[in-house]
């Protein structure tokens, strides 16, 4: 059993190193090709698109909700939970005005041809 635990730990460390390196490479690629939107280098095609996401402010959202019980459903400004409450018509889009900021998030895609 100790071998399984040791191997698990070892793989988690490797995973962390890979994720760190991927993050660094992603940042460099976005800095280099972010304005172009796409590029082809050798056998690889890189494309960068931007997705708009909302970043909610906990304080502003709490103050805009009509019922404090709704805040207990969310417990913090979680975009997924807020989207679900909108979809279920528990809250409406109007009360969310001024509680979030739009943020453009780059989506990086690399394909091998």
Question: How would you explain this protein's 3D organization?
Answer:
By secondary structure, the chain is an alpha+beta fold. Helices cover 49% and strands 27% of the residues. It has helices at residues 2-33, 58-64, 68-74, 79-87, and strands at 38-41, 44-56, 100-112. The chain has a three-stranded antiparallel beta sheet. Strand 1 (38-41) and strand 2 (44-56) form a beta hairpin. 5% of the residues are buried. The mean pLDDT is 89.
Strand content: 25-35%
Figure out the total of helices.
4
Quaternary state reads single chain
Q: Please give the share of residues in helix.
A: 40-55%
Mean pLDDT: 89
Give unreliable regions as ranges: none
Please specify the SSE layout and strand pairing.
Blueprint: H1 2-33, E1 38-41, E2 44-56, H2 58-64, H3 68-74, H4 79-87, E3 100-112
Antiparallel strand pairs: 1-2, 2-3
Give keywords:
27% strand, 4 helices, flat, 3-stranded antiparallel sheet, 113 residues, alpha+beta
Quick structural overview:
The protein is 49% helix and 27% strand.
């Amino acid at each position: 059993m100790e071998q399984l635990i040791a191997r698990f730990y070892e793989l988690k460390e490797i995973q962390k190193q890979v994720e760190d390196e991927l993050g660094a490479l992603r940042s460099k690629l976005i800095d280099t090709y972010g304005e172009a939107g796409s590029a082809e280098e050798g056998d690889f095609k890189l494309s960068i698109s931007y997705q708009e996401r909302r970043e909610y402010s906990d304080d502003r959202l709490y103050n805009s909700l009509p019922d404090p019980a709704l805040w207990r459903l969310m417990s913090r400004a979680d975009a997924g939970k807020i989207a679900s409450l909108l979809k279920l018509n528990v809250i409406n889009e109007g009360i969310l005005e001024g509680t979030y900021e739009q943020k453009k998030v780059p989506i990086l895609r690399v394909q091998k041809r």
